[in-house]
Structures are given as structure tokens and as C-alpha cells.
Amino acid sequence: MQEKVKQIHQESLEEIKNASNLEDLQNIRNKYLSKKSELMSFMSQMKNLSSDERICFGQLMNTIKEDISNKIEEKKKALEEIKLKEQLEKETIDFTLPSRSFSRGSKHPFSAIVDQVSQIFIGMGYQIAEGSEVETDEFNFELLNVPKGHPARDMQDSFFINDTLLMRSQTSPVQAHVMLSKNGQGPIKIISPGKVYRRDDDATHSHQFGQIEGLVIDKNINMGNLLSTLELFAKAMFGEKRQVRMRSSYFPFTEPSVEADISCFECGGKGCSLCKGTGWIEVLGAGMVHPNVLRMCGFDEKEYQGFAFGIGIERVAMLKYGIDDIRKFYQNDKRFNKQFSKE
Q1: C-alpha span between 7 and 127 (Å, rounded)
Q2: CA dist 179 to 128, 194, 216, Å?
Q3: N or C: which terminal CB in the chain sees fewer CB atoms within 10 Å?
């Protein structure tokens, strides 16, 4: 029996030596070391041996199993090294080839303007407030002094989802939400950037566009505070040399209301095609918060006053960067973005 075991041992070593791949090596392991292998079958015959013979045969079997196992592991490492070497030779990198070029992304002018305007007003102590793009008629119109049937609704041809829900036509609902959350206690000093929706589509209007509206509520707020704030913004955004002009206007949620113009940065106020020969460019609308709005949003209009303003994000970008068509903002043309890579 010992001679037969030794013969099997020699056969296994020879097969291990000649194994050419890992699969063959695994088959050899199963053939000689599995419980059902011929070699392991001799273990069941040890019961027929004497005590001394069992000890001697058991030591021999342990030695042979250990040797076969060690030789398989050695061969496995050798075959893995050969396989890795072959793989590396096949996947050799040619360092003389030109590298892949990766173009650097650029910030969209819409985002650039939002960031710039936000930084200007944060520097003045304002906080950022955001709201939902789907609003109720109550917050989008009624709490802003635009009841059902009001002519001002025609100016905001809105996308209604049902009788009470619509895609917000302005970011002013954020102001109403913030005012109601304060339970009639000031101060409030916020800007609310975001997308709004109206039924427009031409070179200077889009059915989707951006607004940044601002709101200040406190005691003893007056028109002078509004005018100085808008002048600070205009000079910070368009340059210290810009002149600011206020014109009377009308908005249902402010009284009095104004339009803010800046002197044309193309001609310096002399008159050109950009400013249509007037020397001035309209940039935003503003006014003192209407007492009705203060009252409906929980504030005592005799104790608190406030001002609000609305800035068109694309309009500011078009003026600052000389963009001639608002639709370019939404056409996903990387060439358009690339022009503003330094912003």
C-alpha cells in the first residue's frame, strides 16, 4: 500500500510540473487531494493495519498531501506570474502617443449672473430665500394685491395646472411666504432667485426665464432706502461710471412704483442702437410694498414699511454680455457657454 501511495505521489508531481494553465492545475488538485480521490481512498484502509503500521502510514500520507499541496501553490504562483506578464505585454502603453484632450467647462451666463447678483446683495446683508416653482393662485396673485379679474393678470399670461395651481409667473410668492412666516414681526431682508414661467416666445422673451426679487420690511423704511439700494446694485453690477435714473411706473403690489434705468455702457449716454437712441437702458422694476400686501401678509402697515424690486436674470446677462437673443440661453450649445469661460 505504501508503494502504491508513493507511485501516486510521483505521478502527481509530474502532472503538476507539466500543468500549463490554472485550470489544469485546479483539476490536478481535485484529482489528488479531494475526498474521493484515489490517494485519499487509502485512508479508509488504515483500519486494517496494526497500530505501528497506522502511525507510519499516517505520517507518510500527511507528508505526501503536504508536498502535493505545496507544489500546487508554487506552480500556481508561477503560472499567475506568466499570465500577468503576458497581459502586460499585450496592454503596453505607448507613451509617445498624444494624450486625450479634455476641454474645460464654463459657467452658464445665467448662473454667472445669479452668483454675481447674490454676492452683491449678500454683501449688503441680504439672505437668500427660495420657493416652489408650482404655486397657488393665492400666493402668486391674490396676496400680492392682484385679485381675480384684475387687469394686471393679463400682463402675466400664466400656465395654469388647474383652477388653483399654476407655474409661478414671478418669484414674488416667495416674499409672501416669508412675510407670513414672520407673523407680523420684522425685519425682513431677502432676495429670491429662481425660474418663472409666462406665455412668451421671441428674441427678447421666453416662456421660461429667471428673476431675482428682493424684499426689505422694517420700521421707518422709505423711498430713499430703495433708491440708494438700487444705485449701489447698478454700480456694482455695471460699473461705477453708470448713472441711475428712476421713472414712475405701475405695479399692483407696490405703491409708489418705479422703473430703474442705467446710462448706456455702449455709448456712455449719448445714444446708440443698444439704448435705442435714448442713452438709457431699463434694468429693473421696484417700489414701496403696497399697504394691502403688508396687511394681507400679516404686517401692520402703520408700523412697518418696505420696498421690493425685481431683476430679470437673462436681461441683465444680455446687457452685460451683449447677448442678442434670449433663446440662446436654453439651446444647450456649448459654443455659447464657452464665450463666458472667464466669468
Answers
A1: 88
A2: 14, 18, 10
A3: N
Can you give the pLDDT at residue 325? 75
Tell me, what's the pLDDT at 265? 72
pLDDT score, position 338: 77
* Calpha distance 294→285 (Å, rounded): 19
CA distance 106 to 340: 7
Which pTM does this prediction carry? 0.65
Locate cell 437673443: which residue? 325
Give me the sign of the Cα torsion angle 323, 241, 248, 170: positive
* pLDDT tens per residue across span 69-110: 899 899 899 988 988 888 888 877 777 778 777 777 778 888
Respond yes or no on whether the N-terminal peptide bond of residue 187 is cis (omega within 30° of 0): yes
Cell of residue 176, nine digits: 409672501
**What CATH architecture is 109-338?**
2-Layer Sandwich (3.30)
**Domain definitions of the chain by residue range:** 2-90, 109-338
Rounded to whole angstroms, the Cα distance separating 66 from 70 reads 6
| CA-derived radius of gyration, the chain | 40
Angle at which helix 2-18 crosses helix 51-90, to 10 degrees, equals: 0
Is 80 within 8 Å of 22 (Cβ atoms)? yes
For residue 221, CA distances in Å to 20, 66, 217, 255, 273 come to: 90, 93, 7, 13, 38
177-to-81, 180, 201, 210, 251 alpha-carbon distances in Å: 69, 5, 29, 19, 19
Bond into 151 cis (ω within 30): no
Rounded to 5 degrees, φ, ψ at 68 are: -60, -45
Sheet holding 127-128, edge to edge: 127-128, 188-197, 208-218, 305-312, 280-289, 254-263, 244-251
- Location of C-alpha cell 431683476: 311
Closest CA to 117 of 321, 323, 316, 286: 316
Residues in the chain: 343
